[in-house]
Every structure is written in C-alpha cells, then in structure tokens.
Design goal:
Strand order of the largest sheet: 3-4-7
Structural class: mainly alpha
Shape: elongated
Distance between the termini: 77 Å
Oligomer: single chain
Number of helices: 19
Number of strands: 11
RNA sequence: GCUCCAUUAGCAUAGUGGCUAGUGCAUCCGACUUUCUAUCGGAAGACAAGGGUUCGAUUCCCUUAUGGAGUACCA
C-alpha cells in the first residue's frame, strides 16, 4: 500500500500561483515523499478564456524555488502523459461518450442567457435555481425530446453541453481523510456540466478522468472542493472506477477580518502572497525570504506536528508530516510569524553565504573596495545579523562601518549633545590619539579609566561618542565599532562632529 | 436563501470524560547593553452560548450564534 502512493498537484495556469497553492503542492509533496510515493504535476488548462501565458512557467519556477520537485510533469513526462489537459482532449471525448451511452449523462441545449434568466428569476423569489431532477424534464435537453429531434439538433451544429444525470433520493456517504464521513442527500445536487460547448471538458470531468488514468491514490486539495466531492464520487461510480482517497485542506484566511487570503490583503498589509514576483507584485523571494522559511511557515499553516517543534527543514517535514494532523478549520495567515521564521533561518545561515548576499548591496552603496575585505565584512555581519530579519536589513544596521554618518538623529542630538560635550569630545580625542593599540578591549579600558579619573559619567561620554560614530543611538557595542573602523576613522568622525554639531 | 465544513487567549495551535488547560507569535513589565527594533527573565490572557448524557464534560450528543466554503459552459 505504502509503495503505491501517487499524488498530484493540479494547478490551473490562470496567473501566478499564490501561497495557498504552494501549500497544497507542499502537502502533496510531503505526503508522497513520506510514503515513498510519486508526486505529479498536471496542468489543468481546460479554460481557454482564462489561460495566461507564462503562468505555467511561473508555477514550475515557484515550486522549484521552494524545493518541491515532481517525479512526473509536463517537463519530465512519465508513463501517464500528456500532463497538460489541453493535450488530452481525445481522452475526455471518449469518456463522455461512455457516460452518454450508459445513461449517466445527457445533452443539453439551454443557452447561458436562458439559464441566467432562470437563476435571476429564482433569486428574486428567494429561491435557488438548481438544474436537476425537479426541473430537468422541463428544460431543453435530450431527456425531454425524442431521438430524432435530438439527432437533428446535434447534426445541425447547434451548440450543446453534456450534463451529469444526478441520481435521486440517495444518501451518499463520502469519506474524507481529514474530516471523516460526510453525508449528502443526492437531491440537493445539480446536474453539473461535464462537457462544454467549446469541446473542452469541465474541471470535474477532466479531473476524474485524469486522476483515474494517472492512477492517483490520494487527492489532496483545497477545501473549496469539498462541495464537489459528491459529484466526483458519483462520477467514479458511473465510470465503474475505484475512487482515490480524498483529503481537503483548510483554507488560508486573511490576517485580519473575514474571508480567505487574497492578493489585496498582501498589498494592504505589506506582505507578499506570491512566492515569486509577478509583474509589479513582489514575491517572497524578491522580498528577501529564504525558501526554507516559506516552506516552514506554509507547512505549519493548517498542520502541526503535535509537538512543540516549530523549525522544520524539508527532510524534517517529510519525516513528521501526516494527513491525520491536518486541521479542519481555516488557518489564519500571520505575516509576523513569517518574519519570525525568516529571522530564525537567517541566524542559521553561514556567515559566508550572508556575506555573499550582502556584498552586492554594499557595492550599490559604493563602498570603497578596501573596506570590503571578506574577513571585515564577515565580522560585521556576525555582529549585526542577530537583529536582522532579511539580508536587506544589514545595510541599515551596519552602514556606519562603511560610511561616515551623513546626518545625525535630531532627537538624539538634542538629548545627548550638551553645551559641554564638544569640550569633552575634544579631550577624548587627545586620549585616543595617544593610544596605539586599537582593539575593542584596550580602547574600552583606556576610555573608561579616563572617564573615572575625570569624574565624568559614562552617559556623558559614551552616549555622544556613539552618536558621533554611528549617527544615531543604535548599533553594536561602541568599542567594537571603534576597533573595526580603526583609529584614523574614529578620530576623524569625532573631529568632524565637534565642528559640525 | 440552500448544501457542506468549522469554533481552545489578540493570532496560530497542543491536549484531556475528573490533578494549577501546554507552546509559539503579538502585548505589557523587568534585566542586560550606561544604544536598540536584538537577547534573557517574568506577567497577563482561552475551552462561543444554552441544553442534555454522566458521579463528573473544554472533551460525547442536540440546538443556537458566529465564521468559512460552494451554489458558473472557472478552476
């Protein structure tokens, strides 16, 4: 059993994949790997109107960036191809004929306008129009006409769709791995369109046919499909096929307010909702997130290990993942938590790789090459990374190592720069000039001793010193900064501040 | 409206028919650093409501409320 697991992620190329989709792909991937199974990518491009060029590549690139790999996909076909539904049209045609022949489906000629009218009309009366047992005989379909008329209309080239004939008076027992048994009264179901007038199948038909033909064992998809489960089960029955097992994942909800997470929430809240940038919207990658962080927080959206562990690499996730531990209720998306994850992963990164990522930023700021020795940059990175969430935070946390402060924080100046400060700084300058060894410890020892000897308070000296060196009241230990920028630069900054402040 | 799903602190969640309901993020306070958005320590904060079942329910059942999804020739 364990070796026959075959799952699939089946996105529709109608735009960039949002993180909910990535999460679905991730859960499929984890489940497959956990059970030594196969993970398939199938492109569901049956809607010609909504097809967006580039979306398919985007999906593959995004998933690849996350480290989600497929054993079979349009790029690497296995024995069940093609892996794009638009290339499988003939298959659906055959299958719909089978359903028509067995009496499980029928032709319908009702126009969209007519159906819209019925829906609006019912709505006005506070009712819902459902195309099914209680009105299908009154509508324009093959159930309400004789064979001759049907053939005539079919041959005349009049557009038609094929609908599923939902059974009457049956209580369906559906099973979902996450939710258990669900009972549905078949009379509440409608006769869904299976085959569109443009010659393409709808999602429902194509999905069932492909999952069967591709020998999918477990369908793991979003909760928005739960209401369709009855139809899908009925379709498997109509074909006489064994249905796979189903698991419906909880939706990802907005950080605040009602409803599911949308692109707009990201714009409002200032966080990405797409893995990679798409047109003018920024993706997680471009915002500076590490793929490990994205995967980690996505995994914990709707699933938890039942332990207090929060940090999981992909291998840990494969090990720990289990469909039984997926939640039933919607998972609220928390942008703060995603930052927390990135902070965690940034701390775990090697200094070398952080330096490598930081160097281009340093160059953008036109830092002179002699300040960019890899040891020097590494020391600085180690010093500031603790308070960084993204590599892009480094510059703000360390610019004073590379450039003299151009401005001084006005509030800090007001608070720290007293009338006697220039005099104290001048005297400090003299002390510093005398010292040749400029290591952090030595300078700290000398300066502190000098402060005591002169009956100054630490705040009187150290606070303005930080201000002068950094430009604001922030940054690592002052004496560490001094040691790195060196004696000459230290003296120059103090000197300049005395004259300009 | 109808169908289905859900409901533990501000948020995400763990957990149990009976010991002070655990954890993380956020919040507040303290310490450190005579800087801090970091780190460390501490605090506050929850079983939606009402009925049952039971010796006993946050845990099982029902009702209500609230939230979510679907209700397309979209997926």
């Amino acid at each position: 059993m364990a070796s026959t697991v075959r799952v699939r992620f089946a996105p529709s190329p109608t735009g960039p994949l949002h993180i909910g989709g990535v999460r679905t792909a991730l859960f499929n991937y984890l489940f497959a790997k956990k059970h030594g199974g196969t993970c398939i990518l199938r492109i569901e491009d049956t809607d010609q109107n909504r097809y967006v060029p580039g979306a398919e590549d985007y999906i593959m690139n995004a998933l690849e960036w996350c480290g989600i790999a497929f054993d079979e996909s349009p790029k690497a076909e296995g024995n069940f191809g093609p892996y794009r539904q638009s290339e499988r049209k003939a298959l659906y045609r055959e299958c719909i004929e089978q359903l028509l022949a067995s009496g499980n489906a029928y032709y319908a000629f009702d126009t969209s306008e007519k159906l819209d009218f019925h829906r609006k009309d019912h709505e006005k009366k506070g009712k819902t129009f459902i195309y099914n047992w209680h009105n299908r005989s009154k509508l324009d379909n093959s159930l309400s006409m004789d064979t001759n008329t049907l053939n005539e209309r079919l041959n005349s080239g009049e557009p038609y769709v094929v609908r599923f004939l939902s059974p009457e008076n049956r209580t369906l027992q559906l099973t979902d791995i996450i939710r258990g048994t669900i009972e549905i009264d078949s009379n509440t179901l409608d006769d869904k369109v299976l085959f569109k007038s443009d010659g393409m199948p709808t999602y429902h038909l194509a999905n069932i046919v492909d999952d069967h033909l591709m020998e999918i064992s477990h369908v793991i998809r979003g909760e928005e499909w739960l209401p369709s489960l009855a139809l899908h089960q009925l379709l498997y029955d109509a074909f006489g096929w064994d249905a796979p097992q189903f698991a419906h994942l909880p939706l990802i909800m907005k950080p605040v307010g009602k409803g599911k997470l949308s692109k707009r929430d990201g714009e409002k809240g200032g966080f990405p909702v797409f893995p990679l940038s798409w047109n003018d919207t920024t993706g997680y990658r471009e915002a500076g997130y590490f793929p490990e962080a994205v995967v980690n927080f996505l995994a914990l959206l709707g699933w938890n290990p039942g332990t207090e562990q929060e940090l999981f690499g992909m291998d840990d996730l494969i090990e720990a993942f289990d469909l039984d531990r997926v939640n039933r209720s919607g998972a609220r998306f928390d942008p703060d938590k995603t930052k927390w994850y990135n902070h965690q992963y940034l701390q775990q990164r090697s200094t070398e790789s952080l330096v490598e990522d930081f160097l281009p930023i340093l160059n953008e700021h036109e830092v002179p090459a002699e300040l960019l020795g890899s040891d020097r940059v590494a020391t600085i990175v180690d010093m500031v990374k603790e308070r960084a969430t993204f590599v892009s935070d480094f510059w703000g946390l360390s610019h004073f190592f590379f450039k003299r402060p151009e401005t001084f924080d006005a509030k800090a100046v007001k608070k720290q720069w007293k009338t006697d400060t220039p005099d104290i700084m001048n005297r400090l300058l003299d002390v510093l000039k005398e010292t040749d060894a400029f290591s952090s410890d030595t300078v700290e020892g000398i300066v502190k001793a000098w402060i005591k000897d002169n009956d100054f308070s630490f705040g009187q000296v150290l606070a303005p010193l930080r201000l002068v060196i950094v430009g604001a009241m922030q940054g690592p230990h002052v004496f560490d900064i001094l040691a790195i920028i060196g004696k000459k630069e230290t003296l120059a900054r103090i000197d300049r501040a005395i004259t300009t402040l």
